[in-house]
Fold:
Amino acid sequence: MEPHAGLFRPLRRAAARYALGHTARSPAPSAHRISTMARVAFIVTTCHEFEGIKVLSSILKKHGHQADCFVHSEEKDYYQAVLDWKPDVVGIYATTGQEAWAYGYIRRWKQELKHLKVVMGGPHPSHDLEPLLHTDVVDATTKGEAEYAILDLVHAWEAGRPIREIPNVGWLG
Ligand code: B12
Structure:
């Protein structure tokens, strides 16, 4: 199988137009998830300022979704912290060399959360589609700016639509 780059094309930076509304971690849904609203968990290794994740998070929230960021170095039980939040989508930020650290966690989360989708973005998948070869882990990657790509991805996954026409998205088909 060959990884496909989708329709990569440059997107205008929308970052400056969105403010990050920081809120306390939203509680996990108690019963059934709301199908029109996704819960997106961004996962990162260390506690840096990730401007990209802040931008994506604010855009998702502006469109009615929930987003939070889980920092590996800040959680006593990382596996459980993310699992308890019951994400629909996990977003991995990866620089080169950092892409695989969460694969073990994701395999376990996917066993528990059968609907879970995973997208990797940031510098590494922007130039290397190798993460898509881990088909049990990564469902899609983004190339470059991802403001519109992540929204389109979340909406497509929520609606059960194919993702292959989404600009700046890599997928394996
Ligand atoms: C600020 C910065 C830092 C800061 C903040 C960390 C960070 N990762 O943001 C600090 C100083 C901590 C840092 C550290 C490092 N950095 Co640095 N950093 C930058 C810098 C200058 C700007 C990043 C930024 O804020 N951009 C603005 C935001 C809005 O854009 P963005 O981050 O690209 O996010 C967009 C997309 O990438 C995407 N996206 C981002 N996250 C996600 C997540 C998901 C799930 C999805 C779908 C999409 C997505 O959507 C966002 C909006 O469009 C870039 C160079 C650059 N010009 O991009 C280097 C850069 C990212 N760093 C780089 C490197 C190598 C590192 C270090 C590994 C250095 C080291 N040896 O320690 C560490 C890694 C730390 C880490 N865990 O990421 C490289 C990465 C190269 C590569 N191939 O991976 C870059 C590209 C510089 C370079 N040209 O070499 N860095």
In short: The pocket of cobalamin is lined by residues 15, 42, 45-46, 48-53, 55-56, 91-93, 95-96, 119, 121-124, 142, 145-147, 150 (CB under 6 Å). The chain has five helices and seven strands. The beta strands are 3-4, 39-44, 66-71, 89-93, 117-121, 140-142, 169-172. Confidence is low (pLDDT under 50) at residues 4-23, 30-34.
